[in-house]
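Quick illustration for those who missed Monday's session on complexes.
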Amino acid sequence: MTPEPGPLAVLPVADPLFVDAVRAAGGAVAPLSASTRGIVWLDNAGGDSLGEVLAAHPDVNWVQLPWAGVDSFAEVLRQHDRPGRIWTSAKGAYARPVAEHALTLLLGVLRLLPTRIRADSWGAKGGASLYGRRVLVVGAGGIARELLRLLRPFEVDVTIVRRTAAPVPGATTTVTVDRLDEVLPAADVVVLAAPLTEATSGLLDAARLAHMKPGAYVVNVARGGLLDTGALLAALDAGHLSGAGLDVTDPEPLPTGHPLWRHERVVMTPHTADTPEMTRPLLAERVRDNVRAYLSGGGFTGVVDPRQGY
Ligand SMILES: NC(=O)c1ccc[n+]([C@@H]2O[C@H](COP(=O)([O-])OP(=O)(O)OC[C@H]3O[C@@H](n4cnc5c(N)ncnc54)[C@H](OP(=O)(O)O)[C@@H]3O)[C@@H](O)[C@H]2O)c1
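Prediction with NAP bound:
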């Protein structure tokens, strides 16, 4: 479907980086008005005000969202999708910094960095290597594929779990998510790199964590809602899992003083797999690409399916 191009508004504030990105790709930027046809939405805080803008401007036919995951826009997508309106996100755009961070968390937890960093004396030998391990990645998008590339030197055996069936190049095995329980017990490491949707909410719950190989590791760079926080803590404390690397939590922010913060087998970062310094130029690139697509009648990158939620 090809939206009829028209003036684009950069909202809620016309950030010069993104105004320039629209113009560099040949788009016309103008303040929001009845003639606005496309919106580049930059707000951090979910979708309420975007919903108001769309309700008042039903002729908007393209909306570029700022994040790779659009879970915080779920309500806007539900209420304001309509035939002919295209939604795009930054999915895939932040793959490099986030995959880099996933590998950082994984190596940190394997090498017992939480304990080593807090130590004030020599300590006992310990730690594990990534070489030759079995890694299961949930997700086959930008982050998963970049992580697969970064993992190559470690000669790991990668199983990809995704929603659709196409095999992912470089993975030993690709399965659809209905087969997760079949492949889960063989994995030494499970990395979550899928969107938070109705289908993935609570994906790694207590039963699935119990189903994981004793001594395995979990890394979550996706969204906290994919992993049951209490069940993870219990699995770590029971010694069933060896460690976790978490950039995202449920709830988020994780309350000050929560036992996961100072857990000796957890490396935790406060949703900093990507930072504004990293994402801004990547989002500007996505905006340029999609403005070109908008003006030339198609070929958008990062198209969101509102029914699937990603
Ligand atoms: N920590 C951070 O700062 C940070 C930064 C960026 C993104 N993220 C999160 O990471 C997620 C992934 O980012 P991305 O850029 O890689 O997104 P992406 O390119 O949209 O990839 C999403 C992948 O998830 C898979 N998926 C969807 N539903 C699934 C299900 N029910 N079971 C298993 N796999 C499923 C998709 O499978 P198919 O390919 O089969 O459709 C797709 O391969 C985002 O949605 C976001 O929530 C976090």
